[in-house]
Structures are given as C-alpha cells and as structure tokens.
Amino acid sequence: MGLLYPKVFGGGVDAVEDKVLQAQLATLSFVNAEHVGLADSCVEGEHWEGALRALLRMGGFRVPADKIDCVVDAVEHLGCLVDKCDGKFVRLVALAVLKAQPPQIHSQLEFVARFVHPNQLWAPRSGGAFTLLRAALQYVAHLDPIGLSQWSREREP
C-alpha cells in the first residue's frame, strides 16, 4: 500500500473537500466547549490531549489500518471524558477536530473507507469510532460561524 499511497490519497474531489473543510475549521477556530454545549472540564487533561495527538498522528501513516487505529485511539480518549452513548459525544469529537485541525482529514477518512478491510469497518470498536468521526465532521461542516459568534457576543457581560 505504501507504494500506491501517493497515487490514491488526496487527489481530485478529495483535495477540494479538504480545502473546503480546512477553511471551515479555520473559520471556526474560536469555538469553545460552551459553544457546543459542553463543560470546560471536557476539554482539558490527559485524555483531551491524547485525543488531539491521535487525530494529528493519523496523517503520519500510509496504511489504512494504522489510520483507523488513530481514530479508535482518539475516540477512546474522548470516551473517558463523556459517555459515548451521550448525545454530547459527537459534539465533543467535533470540538476535538476543530482544536486539532488534522491536515487532510477528509482525504484520510475517504482513504480509510476505500482501502481498509471491510471487517474493520463493520467491527463495533473500529467501525463505531470511524462513524463517530465522520458524523463529527458533518457537524463541523454545518456549523454556522456567524450564528456562533453572535451567540458569543450576546452572552458576554
């Protein structure tokens, strides 16, 4: 897979989607825990930092299984902060993506979807983490930066 990687990763439509998503991530860099309905205690400590590191580490791998292991690691760290069954969990994952701003995150997830063994995507541990991260990216993609910034100004004393 390592030899094919430059030919199958991040080209075409994926490159365009990456640019759009990176622009959205940059625009939303001001978002904090309160904006997405989370306590500040959720975004501090060893597990929070571990999740951010795992998201960033994903870009260093060329093998899909290694990338999905990083996704699982990030989700497990975040699962120590908020219950994975809680409705807030996807927002926590989204906030981790916003804070880490992993490069080419769309291309990385598409690469995993195309080339990881299907059994891994159907497995509860890895497939569930992968699905949560994709849901979090959709959440981020549809956040309204203008509405959030107005909401912040209204809440200031």
CATH architecture annotation: Up-down Bundle
Uncertain runs with pLDDT below 50, 5 residues or more? Answer: none
Quote the distance from N terminus to C terminus: 55 Å
* Proportion of strand residues: under 5%
Helix coverage percent: 55-70%
- CATH superfamily, please? VPS9 domain
Characterize the biggest β-sheet.
Answer: none
What is the CATH level 1 assignment? Mainly Alpha
Number of strands: 0
Number of helices: 9
Q: Enter the CATH topology name.
A: Glutathione S-transferase Yfyf (Class Pi), Chain A, domain 2
Radius of gyration: 16 Å
Query: How many structural domains in the coordinates?
Result: 1
Mean pLDDT across the residues is 87
Structural class: mainly alpha
- SSE string, helices as H and strands as E: HHHHHHHHH
Morphology call: globular
Describe the structure.
This protein has one domain: Glutathione S-transferase Yfyf (Class Pi), Chain A, domain 2 (Up-down Bundle). The chain has nine helices and no strands. It has helices at residues 5-8, 13-27, 46-57, 64-79, 89-100, 105-115, 118-122, 124-141, 145-155. The model has no long low-confidence stretch (mean pLDDT 87).
